[in-house]
Write a structure and sequence with these properties.
By secondary structure, the protein is an alpha/beta fold. Helix content is 30%, strand content 18%. It is globular.
Length: 245
């Protein structure tokens, strides 16, 4: 029987305040890992929803980035490695170039998902920084998601909602420009972590937030898998929460 946990949820007036709060919580977890084991392994999401959090995390004081290994959740298949829409390139522009001491392990789709699974290994991540898709996906695990996938990474076909989101967020000009497939880290591998911190701003994510928190735990609502983990923090703004603070 699945034990259900309620994510610790907090709401802020703006994306910037959300980002600073999420970054503070993330920095605390990274410091804790370094103090305990001498290093920290973190998994990153690459999306506009993460920009404020990553910008604030890059300037957090007293973080020894030379002791941090960074992985990322997904990457398009059949997209040029130097394309600006590449998630690894987005992470460099937004975050990694500001913390050059960190070690980054980019996901290379041409090498296949098994190679990234081997690179990640079986050890829990110290921290996963995640967002929610408009359809509630975690990474590119679109509904219905596999909550028991034995693989750590796999190639998936992106559903129409996920592809439309990439256009709506300004990453691609048209749907025809959006790749149809990606390599994604699976939900069980994402949840194999000591702590998960989600940054989910914007009115377009309101239904995904509501579903994640209130729907029965089900592959039809991928975000509900977060409620099977005991250490999840969800940072919202007033638009995504649908409240005033």
């Amino acid at each position: 029987m699945t034990v259900e946990h309620a994510p610790r949820t907090s709401t802020y007036p703006s994306r910037e305040e959300l980002g600073r709060a999420a970054a503070g919580a993330a920095a605390e977890q990274i410091r804790k890992a370094i103090a305990t084991t001498g290093r920290a392994r973190i998994m990153l999401a690459a999306a506009p929803s993460q920009a404020a959090t990553l910008a604030a995390l890059a300037v957090e004081p007293d973080l020894d980035w030379s002791r941090v290994e960074c992985f990322h959740m997904d990457e398009y298949v059949d997209l040029s490695p130097d394309a600006p829409q590449s998630f690894r390139n987005w992470l460099h522009r937004t975050f990694l170039d500001q913390v050059p001491q960190a070690t980054f392990h980019p996901l290379a789709p041409e090498a296949g998902p098994d190679s990234y699974a081997e690179l990640m290994g079986d050890e829990p991540f110290d921290l996963v920084l995640f967002g929610l898709g408009v359809n509630g996906h975690l990474a590119f695990n679109d509904p219905p998601a596999d909550f028991d996938d034995p693989r750590a990474a796999k190639i998936v076909a992106l559903d129409e909602t996920s592809r439309r989101q990439q256009v709506d967020e300004g990453n691609f000009a048209t749907m025809d420009d959006v790749p149809t497939h990606a390599v994604t880290v699976t939900i069980p591998r994402l949840l194999n972590a000591h702590a998960l911190i989600g940054s989910v701003p914007g009115a377009v994510k309101r239904q995904a937030v509501r579903d994640t928190l209130t729907q029965p735990i089900s592959p039809d609502y991928p975000g509900t898998a977060l409620r099977t983990h005991a250490a999840v923090q969800l940072f919202l703004d007033t638009e995504s929460a649908g409240t005033e603070v």
